[in-house]
Amino acid sequence: MQRMSTSDSGDASGSENRPDRDGPGVPGVPDPMDEYQKDFEAAEKKVAGEIDPGMRAVVVAVCVLVLLLSFTLPHTGSVNGWDVLVGNQDAIDENIKLPSRIFVWMALVFGGVFSILALVTRRWVLAWIALAGTAVSAVFGMLAIWSRQTLPATEASSSGPGFGLVLGWITVIVLTFHWIKVVWSRTAVQLAPPPPPTPHSLPIRAR
């Protein structure tokens, strides 16, 4: 009986002094990978909200410059895009219609300002806004050209669509095409299924 009690006490003291081999995953023991997991999730959210236009960034930048250049060219007659934008007396004399005014404003705001902001910040939201705005601008550009080609008889002395208007419309269409490619490539990555969990990410059951 004395030997058995001595053996039991020895086993108890040995189990108390034995180091815990289970490591992370045991209740009450913090997992050092949790801190890294938080950093990974923060980095993943940041990357998910960014775009990577690649060589399309050069094309978009050139298109923005061409768009701004089209504003200095004749929109109709002797009136250029800036005259239509501010609505000065020359634009009034040429009977500039509402579609032309909406087109130049939307082309400048979305095709110019938001495209530059999206390239500089690489934010997916700004690229999406630039895409939506340029797409609508392309529609109003078509209406602006149509309005200059279908003038009423009382405005027969007014001029038709100028080279600057046509160039700006084509440039906005090109911008829309490239922003679709950039935004869709980012969206496809976001919609992709998550990778399967690695053995290190699986929970460890306590023994």
Feature tags:
207 residues, mainly alpha, two-stranded antiparallel ribbon, elongated
Task: Tell me the layout of helices and strands.
Blueprint: H1 2-17, H2 33-48, H3 56-70, E1 74-76, E2 79-80, H4 81-86, H5 89-93, H6 98-121, H7 124-149, H8 163-191
Antiparallel strand pairs: 1-2
Helix pairs in contact: 3-6, 3-8, 6-7, 7-8
Protein described:
The structure is a single chain. The protein is mainly alpha-helical. Helices cover 66% and strands 2% of the residues. The protein contains eight helices and two strands. The chain has helices spanning 2-17, 33-48, 56-70, 81-86, 89-93, 98-121, 124-149, 163-191, and strands at residues 74-76, 79-80. It has a two-stranded antiparallel ribbon with strand order 1-2. Helix 3 (56-70) runs antiparallel to helix 6 (98-121), helix 3 packs antiparallel against helix 8 and helix 7 packs antiparallel against helix 8 (163-191). The longest helix has 29 residues, at 163-191. Residues 1-7 and 15-23 have low confidence and may be disordered.
Taken as a percent bin, the fraction of beta residues is under 5%
**What fraction, in percent, of the residue positions are helical?**
55-70%
For the largest beta-sheet, the strand count, sense and barrel status come to: 2 strands, antiparallel
Distance separating the two termini:
32 Å
**SS class:** mainly alpha
On the 0-100 scale, what is the average pLDDT? 77
